[in-house]
Amino acid sequence: MRFSKYARFYVLATQGIITMVVLALIGFFIGRAIDVESIWPGVLATIGALCGLISFICTLLKLLKEEDKVKHEPKNRSED
Question: Who's near 33: CB < 8 A, 6+ residues apart?
Fold first, then answer.
């Protein structure tokens, strides 16, 4: 079942990258709606990318915590 583990991390990494890109684009377009010639598009795009990065890290930590919990959980053995 090692393939499942690698697939899970691949999906998580892809989700994190896409989230950062989408939030950066949203921030950029909001900044352009405020003022095209100002610094706002860059600032809001950076803030959006940082929010995506924080979300990605939180999701990664939750996944690692869940895996540790499952790994250290004693197996239930039914008695016959």
Answer: none
